[in-house]
Amino acid sequence: KGLGRRVLTAAVLLPPVLFLIWLGPWGLAPLLAAFAALGAREFVRLLGGSDPPHAPWIAAGSAVLLIAACGRLLPLSVPAALVLVVVAAIAGAFLRRRGGMLNGLAVALVGSIYLGLLPGHLLRFYAFGREGTSGAYPVYYALVLVWGCDTAAYLVGSKIGRHRLWPRVSPSKSWEGALAGVAGAMPDHGELFQRE
Fold it and tell me: 130-137 long-range CB contacts below 8 Å, 24 or more apart?
């Protein structure tokens, strides 16, 4: 049941995602921004940082700002964007009605940086396209590595995974799946060095 749903999801979502990547940074950035905004809001809620009510929006806006800065879609450097994120997080922390200010600051900062900087750097991969290859190739390549890792981890972990990795956080993840994920990305990663 789980595998069938994953295959169906991939069959439906893969073509539009590949097309957006092919369009370049301006095609991929809105998709990354939407996922980062939703993820940042969820991250803040999970860690109890949704007081005041606008805290998830501060984290979501900060994540989107970092993606735009990483992709050079705004005339703003990444360090300048980080300063704005810190200022927004501090302002949001001061507006908290209950709980410690440091907790609110940490939740907003970690959420927006994790969900903004990491996907944002995917936009920088367009600059790594070699002469005669599409600038989208490095982005496709990064996704192939992730998909290879995820697929191997899921298949091995669901079939033979017995030793739980971190049951309190993710009860279905296993050490066997984690090791298979690393191995699943290795053949793809070796291809990079053969091309150079």
Answer: 134/22, 135/24, 136/21, 136/22, 136/24
Alpha-carbon span 50 to 109, nearest angstrom:
13
N- to C-terminal Cα distance for the chain? 41
Alpha helices, DSSP H, located in the chain: 2-23, 25-46, 55-70, 78-94, 101-124, 137-160, 175-195
Length of the chain equals 196
CA of 101: how far to CAs of 74, 87, 97, in Å? 30, 13, 9
**pLDDT tens for each residue of 148-186:** 899 899 999 999 988 998 887 777 889 999 999 999 888
In the DSSP assignment, the letter for residue 170 is E
